[in-house]
Write a structure and sequence with these properties.
The chain is an all-beta fold. The chain is built from no helices and 19 strands.
Length: 241
Amino acid sequence: MRHEHIVRAVAFPQGNKPHLVATGGFEKKLRLFDIDRGSEPSSISSSPTGPEGSIGNTSLVYHELGPGVHGGTIKSIVWGADFNLLITAADDKMIRWWDIRTRSPVASVPVEGDLGTCELNSTSKSTTPYRSVLSVAAGKTAYFFDGLAPGQLIKKVKTPHDIASLAFNIEARKFVVGGASDTWVREYGFDDEKEMQLHKGHHGPVWSTNFSPNGKLYATGSEDGTIKLWKYCEEPYGLWR
């Protein structure tokens, strides 16, 4: 899968046989590769129908979606809860939702400030109003989109600080942000939008934040070369008492 410049983002769809992979980066091109079929360019003859969907009888090796649409480096690619949906976040400060069947964007939303992380969070619990949420860090704002409705903003939370990373705990209705300049980690309530906890310890921007599958821990990764684990529950957990 040869590219002519730096690749910043790679994404596989969910499923037992992820035969497609999407890539993007400094070329400002969103490419969709079929990793089962070699490495020379071809075209799509029919559309995938699901995680195990068929591409068709003719070869798909890669296809560029929306040539010329991105106005900046593609920093993040997320495969949607719907297999036919791709999401990109680019340095032109736009979030775009793409239908891989039509190879064109179906929604786009501008954001304020430089883009940080872009992650999709999902849950199977019926007690939450949203089963899937796309969380985006940009400038001083945390954005939350309905993961099943392209371009549908649930809410955005403005903070006093530049944020580089964002992780959302759907069940707890809380989120964590990593600082881009002050190097600190902050916990917020999703509903009241208030800062709940402040953690110091990193000595560089916190570029990555992620909750564990059970939601009782989250990890932060920093430019200082360290990864820190933070307990996110009241009861003792592992080495944390």
